[in-house]
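User: I'm putting together a teaching handout on how sequence relates to shape, and I'd like one worked example. Could you take Major facilitator superfamily (MFS) profile domain-containing protein from Stentor coeruleus, show the sequence you're using, and then write out its predicted structure as tokens right after it?

Assistant: Happy to. First the sequence, then the structure tokens directly below it.
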Amino acid sequence: MGHISKQLAIYVCLLFCFIPYTMIATFYPKIAESKGIPYWLIGLVFSADPLAALFSSFFLSKYMIKIGRKKILLSGLFLSAFSMFILSPIEVVDKNLMLSLSFLSRIIAGMSAACVMVAGDSVFVSDYPDDVEKMVGRYEAVSGLGMIIGPLVGIVLYLESLLIELIAFGGLILLTIPGISLMLGNFRDYVVENHKMNYLELFCKPKIMLDLGVNISVMACYGFLIPNLEIHLLNMGFSHWQMSLCFALLTFSYMVFSIYTNWLFQKLDARSTIFIGFLLIALSFLMLSPWKVIFPTKLDIILASLPIMGLGQAMIYCKKYLVPIYPHMIQTSLEYGYSKDDVLVDSLSGLSNMALDAGEIIGPIISGGLISLFGFENTGTLTAFTYAAYGLVYLFGSGLFSKWISNKKTVIPIIELE
């Protein structure tokens, strides 16, 4: 099989990884609430997914060279299907069994996501170094498409028999595995120059840590929304269909902006784009709550917050300066003296996905606990100020502020000479 079929196979794997991620957000929180499960415990259930992915990413980044990328990708599909089978009876079991099945399902789903994302990232960077930006655009488009389809699939499943439909969906994933295996074909041999890789040393490099912190921030945003947005919108008077469309609006706007971010903001320095993205996410949380000091509690304000949040996420995450493991972290690693080979790519892929997982863990746990104590409005407002604060950290930590001052000093003498 050729390069196109291999790429298509990886995109299908990503699709089946991201559809369940947003799919369960349209029905699980309400079912859990109806069984008397509190917000904070719902948050823990959703955090089990990225927690499992975090540990799996660490393991995979170290041993992918021995296991093989193809086996890892196919294992991700199998685990995704298995997680659907385990989750299927949650409507018909009691509270305690539902919690047990939920945690087990989310742990397996996290392992699945780690397999697909770590191996997929590594293949894109190592096998297609000249087409990284093109691959990234497609990667984000497929991810966004999966997150758009997820809520729509979820609401359809919820209207029918959830038990049967989840089993059928898991079965569909299993049926694709032989075809995906054929499409992936054979992978090239590994190139190894970094025979000894100290992950902690690589992680502690200041510029690498700043990049990873941005990844954490983006996924913490999703981690906040996935377990909490459904109940918030239903409490605001939205129907299940309207609520699902709101999820789709957020992910659709993210997908569209992720494709066109480089074109829309090509004249802006990448660090400036990321800084503005943080401010937009802060604004969107103030509107989503909404923070009544500034915004009235109106439907159009809440709806407008979702595409603004999608734009902010795309500006942070998809600007070529900071796509996970791609040009910037690799270039930074080379500046620190590392050689560019498959070991470095696998290591950065693992670290990047671990940072994303950490954001998914932090988001549900902290937001669930704070909402239980202070309510959605106050928690959303606090989250908004937190994102604005990290934006300021990035402003100074990335050297962007120093660059602005330097440019200003350069412009002033020119004006004086004129």
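A couple of points you could highlight for students: The radius of gyration is 21 Å. Residues 320-325 have pLDDT under 50 and may be disordered.
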